[in-house]
Amino acid sequence: MIEVWCTKAWNDLAMPRQKFAKNALHFMEHLRSQRTAMLLTFTVPLMVFTWHIIILVERPAHLDKIVAQLGSSAIDCFFQNPMPNNAGTCLLFIQSTERGYGFYFYKSGGNSQRKLLYEETYLTAGRPTETFLGWSPDDRFFAYVRRNYYWQIVICDGNTGATLATMQVPRPAISGAWLSPQTLAVFNVNNILCTIENSKGKWAPPKPFVSFLNKSYAFTDGLVKNLTAFDDNSVLWQQGNTVWYCGKNNEKPTIIFDSLTNTLMEFSYSKTVGTILLHCQNAKGHFFFNCYLGQDKILHDMKAINIHEYSPTNSTLINNGAGYAFMSQVGTSNVLVVKPDNRNSYCQYQWFDQIEGLAANQRQIFVTGSRNKSPPCIYDVDIATGSTTCMISKKDGDFYYWTNCVIEQSTLTNSFGEALNYYLYVPKHSTAKTKYPLIVGILGKGAVPGFEFAAQHEAFANDGFYFAYVDRYQRNDAQWGRDALALYENLVKRPDIDSNNVYLYGSSAGVETVYGLLKKKPELWQGAMIFSPPDFPEPSQLPHKRLFVDCGGNSPSFGREGPRIPLEFQDGAAKAGIPVTLLVHPGLGHSLRVPLAERERMHEALMFLNN
Question: Which of 121, 247, 369, 421 would disulfide-bridge 355, Cβ 3.0–4.6 Å?
Fold first, then answer.
């Protein structure tokens, strides 16, 4: 098949460029299922209207196996916070799959059960718009919203995960809260609050709260957050700095908290004891209000709790409202902070790697994140001791063909006197008196404190490269370039790093910094790898350095022109004498989020580095 297509490619060299590009991109989809990968390398200027060569590179067997396992974990991530039931015996979570992402039901115990409820396949960037809608108070039911041609709300058995009812809805639900075992409240994307009720074993379609039948009380401004059951007939929710209360039959919603001087970050409510925890922030720092809502719909006994030494996220009540927990950063590492009750002081548990999310029922805490520089897991955290048990790990077992590399965490001081925290991946099987090449990474936005597991970075180290990047937390993109230079200047002093073999690596928002470093200090770099670029510079402004560019053909950054944009950049670079290896993934967006494409990216990046 490959020989036949190669012959056809050579015969088609004279065809119009657009038609040839279209044929090549379609054929890439076929090659993804083969043991070969397609690299498009062009050295002929656009004006010639021919492409010089198409190289098909056979994958070494051992590299193929490493890429297969590391590539499957490249996007092996969890979306949204996990959702435990009230008894702590079952867990709902959303995790990436080979084709997109899946909604899972997990039951713990001796015969633990993991069930895929629903899988959404996707070819564009983005996170799930579907969501879980919570557990009923007695754990008999749970619900989620999915898209199956039409939007649907699905009610499931809380013990087995089996589907009990499915109802079509005109708009997707964005948040849910169970008022009772028979009544689920949901907000839809239009901010209309409804109930779904079970009568004699039959679940009825959504019915708006009375106040939301009157359009004047439909909330059009502000994102609805944290819909919470207050009692069997009413709910609480947050919009901006305001917390609202509304009963099913109330004429209009009631504001119970509205901050004019502070920013309301989040709130938590314990139905068991009626306690509300408000997390606020002002110029002095973060603090909590602990209070309760009276029958007059006014907050009473508002006690301020000073927590200025922390910057909490995901704060939640635990122990039936007696205590609370949250995530924060202290120094250069993450911590899980637990206040079990009023009698005990704070317990602070170090979590050196990245924390992605936190959820809790009344007695347990579940953290999504990495530990010991490994792929993300969902951990059950013991409130009393801080010990962790990995409940949900990588989908397809342990890794075999690759080594979890040594990762050094250290600090340096740049020329401005700023202390920078950085991470350095050490090459697999590194030996003394041997120099290894270095890759300096500039990652995209969305940084959270702590180490972030990335299979692509592990692949570099497994292939014999040092890979280093500066922690971007609280560093803006105007500082990324000088941070990367400071990192380079610090690391090339090491005797085990080859200062004549240094590459740049940029992803998404970090690509602009790579362009700037190539122009400012071209003598330092052998070349650069560019993943998911938001745009391309004028090729004549770049130095004559090798470039590897990997992107989705349908990236929103390219608009209607699609893959024509990176192809035209490659042609312009060829005209300027700059060798560019381009890998375009047809149909994919800015973020690939498809394991097959991630494996392609990983393999071709390693081939680029080794050529």
Answer: 369
